Amino acid sequence: MAAPCGGPGPPPAAAAATPGPSAGAGPRVCFAAGAAAEGPEEAPGRRQGKVTVRYDRRELRKRLHLEEWILAQLTALYDCREEEIPELEIDVDELLDMESDGARSARVQEILVDCYKPTEAFVGDLLEKIRGMQKLNTPQKK
């Protein structure tokens, strides 16, 4: 079993690389408040911590449903299977950054320039679906 952070035992790199009974417990991050020391008595500033980022789950779920809808619509527009769709990148965050629906519409039309089917209905529906969404590139603090 690996020793706790700062405790006796192998150095942290060796402890992480050595499989053992605590291998499924997950990684630990030790934060030191000064120079590295061998024992817990010598480093009272050490503590265990976890690094986490929280996103709004509801917004993530909305984004997932939107991406699935976009994929289904592109499959129908290009009249092919998902694997055969030309490589397109419809960046929802980029669209949300734009000032107007006109600019958003023009950008999506530019991306879909090679599509031989009419795209106006898709673009209108897409703009309606992203209205009110939030960007996901920054985590929300709770």
Characterization of this structure:
- By secondary structure, this protein is mostly helical.
- 39% of the residues lie in helices and 4% in strands.
- The chain contains five helices and two strands.
- The chain has a two-stranded antiparallel sheet.
- Helix 4 (101-111) crosses helix 5.
- The longest helix is centred in the middle third of the chain and has 21 residues, at 57-77.
- The radius of gyration is 25 Å and the shape is globular.
- The model is unreliable at 9-24 and 30-40 (pLDDT under 50).
Major sheet size, sense and barrel closure? 2 strands, antiparallel
Record the strand order, biggest sheet.
Answer: 1-2
Count of alpha/pi helices: 5
Strand content: under 5%
Question: Please, what is the average pLDDT?
Answer: 73
Instruction: Report low-confidence residues grouped into runs of 5 or more.
Output: 9-24, 30-40
Shape: globular
Tell me how many strands there are.
2
Helices and strands, in order, run as HEEHHHH
- Residue share in helices? 25-40%
Q: Return Rg in Å.
A: 25 Å
How far apart are the termini? Answer: 34 Å
Instruction: Name the structural class.
Output: mainly alpha
